[in-house]
Amino acid sequence: MKLQKLILKNFKGIRDYTFEADGRSMNVFGRNETGKTTLFDAMTWLLTGKDSRDRSADSFGIKTRDKNGDVIHNIEHEVEGVFDEITLKRCYQEKWTRKRGASQETFSGHTTDYWVDGEPVKANEYQEAVEEIMPERLLKILTMPDYFPEQMHWSDRRDVLFDLVGDIDTEEIITNYGDLERYPKVLDGKSHEAREKILKEKRRDLDKELDNIPGRIDELNGRLYTDIGDVEEAKATVTELKEKKDTIEAKRSEVKSGGRVAELKVERNELQAKKQKLKNEHQQQIQDSLSDQRQKVNELQNKVDEAEPSWRESKREYESSSAEDRLSK
Length: 329
What we know:
6-stranded antiparallel β-sheet, alpha+beta
């Protein structure tokens, strides 16, 4: 796969630039902050959707900014690569929507569009086209120095090396290293990976049993202490019942020895209760009667108070009439 040209528009601060490679091996030189890494990021983002440090577009700052450092909204960020076999283009842009009843649009995320040979395609179709010319893992191995030794899983590294030098024959290894003679018996007709999974599972089961042993010991100790506690509780119950029995026996003896005296005490208590009840009822009757008498006295006093002005007036008229009679004689 040979690159003919790489076209950047609004990508990480580059507004419009075309890198002409013409299928040749190219070396890019320049001072810091002149766009060398940006070209590399553009190539990796075009093919994988991530920059040269394996970060997504939302993370590595793909958007173009103004002189104040603010993001310029509503513009498309795209990279187009023209190769000798295919032309690819990836476009990243903001998504703005207007909710019902709202006067302005609001930012609601990003969208990414894809083209293969000028035809718009879906993301999975684009990825399939890229994989045919440059698988992502191979691209990272070729372009990221620390990917193979540090980031790639050891099993994937082994697969890559085996593809280069060929697989290693197990019997040959056993023949060359005599201390591995028991290895086939350990495998028991299974592959190394399958046997390793079985042994790991057995080890996990043994670890679980070991972890459960302290709990089992505590459980058995708890049962032992519970059994001992039941015996002590039974003894306490027997002692309590004996005490109750002694108390009942004492009361029964008292009744037998007192006989009629106990009965008379009960009758006396009943009579005293009745006496108190009658006394209370009699006092209540007296109080009720006094209350009635007081009410009658109050009523008579009110009548006297009401008749007194009239009596005084009659008295004055009588005295005045008597005085006039005496004067006329």
